[in-house]
Amino acid sequence: HVDPEFGTGAVKVTPAHDPNDYACYTRNPHIGIINILNPDGTLNEYGLQWEGMDRLAARTQIIEKMGELGHFEGVEDRVIPLKHSDRSKTPVEPYLSDQWFVKMGDHDDGKPGLAQLAMDAVEQNRVRFYPSRYAKTYLDWLGEKRDWCISRQLWWGHRIPVWIATLDVGGTWSNEQEFAAHKKRSDEVRESAKKELSEYLLAAGVSSEDFTIELDVASIKCCVRSELAEAAINSLVEFKESFQPKKVEEGSPIPTALDRVEGFESATRDALNCSSFFNLRQDPDVLDTWFSSALWPHATLGWPDTAHNPPLSASKPADRVGGSATGTDPSTQSTGFENEVLATFYPHEQPADGNHSVLITSRDIITLWVARMVLTGLYNMGDIPFRHVHVHPKILDGFGQTMSKSKGNGVDPVDLIGKYG
């Protein structure tokens, strides 16, 4: 935080570009947030005459401008805690952006949330750490109950299963009556958009339990939970894009719009009714790798398909227990069948002979992986994924640092064998 003895006494507060200042904003939201950067590190419209200029170049010119205006007193060399990327070795620039979060805190009605349920599992000795001192690492981190940011801006990963569209709520007003009329129309558009998208997905054969629609001020968001729902909404994207005006170049044919929704022809009429929103597209972000890894204990056993055993190889389809292969489409699943692999190995234990499931891991991923496997297991399966967590020692370099390819401080076992045998 700010040191009263530091600098000139004038304090800047930039919630969009400093973690401490953002914390100040959460306590005093009336100060607002102004983000002056574009994603590529150049200044946006708030940069005034320096808009479009790289932030590093702009700093030099701003100092010159302050000198011209008579406001510049001097420059002091200071040692500051400047963070650098472990891979690129370049400075990390704090930048406020929209991300997806998982709520970790308790519910408004007082019921325990994800973090508390995972803490209860350890405090009630349903999950035990060996050595036991590592339970404190687990409990201290979960005890903060901070929401978990699960979105990443990377090329690879599981894509966020959310589709977003812009609502047709544009307009202007010059008095209160016009504003009231605009607000009424905007509310009607939002409700129409939700109704249109819901009716299309239902007409495409998607269960109402496999999608969730939420409305924002000027957008509509749809989260899907099945392969069928994903295919249906992707077909709607292609269908709507086929009606967009396209530039016709000399020698190329004029593109024609699709006359039906590919793969979901019976829902074409409902697709044509989706007129209250446009620019439907999937969120470009991917899931945090630790979110995907948190699903490992049950996803590797066939979850969320609880009606079929998982395939033993990529070339062999999933088998319906006690019957023939039927695939994994939820619409083909039959009641009365069960995924025996999931039921047997999640969690794997044989209480009769004292055998329990054991996770063997390193201390540096207790919060990243262990805690998250427990909370996702409790949420998705209603049970913990393992009973015992064995934390093994870890070989470090001569300076006590973790060996990694990025740091270049690893050792070649072959060289060590050649030297010491």
Characterization of this structure:
With 421 residues, the chain is an alpha+beta fold. Helix content is 31%, strand content 11%. It has twelve helices and 13 strands. It has helices at residues 19-27, 55-69, 114-123, 134-143, 176-203, 227-241, 268-272, 289-294, 296-299, 340-345, 366-381, 413-420, and strands at 101-102, 128-130, 148-149, 151-152, 162-167, 211-215, 219-224, 277-282, 286-287, 308-309, 319-320, 358-362, 388-392. The strands form five sheets. It has a four-stranded antiparallel sheet, covered by helices on one side. The chain has a three-stranded parallel sheet with strand order 2-13-12, with no helix packed on it. α3 packs antiparallel against α4 (134-143), α3 (114-123) crosses α11 (366-381) and α4 (134-143) packs across α11 (366-381).
Helix/strand order, N-terminal first = HHEHEHEEEHEEHHEEHHEEHEHEH
What is the distance, rounded to the nearest whole angstrom, between the alpha carbons of the first and last residues? Answer: 54 Å
Strand content: 5-15%
Sheet bearing the most strands, described?
4 strands, antiparallel
- Kindly name the structural category: alpha+beta
Please give the count of helices.
12
- Averaging pLDDT over every residue, what do you get? 85
Portion of residues within helices:
25-40%
- Gyration radius, in Å: 28 Å
How are the strands of the largest sheet arranged?
Answer: 6-7-5-8
* Low confidence ranges: 320-337
Q: How would you sum up the global shape?
A: globular
Question: How many strands appear in the DSSP assignment?
Answer: 13
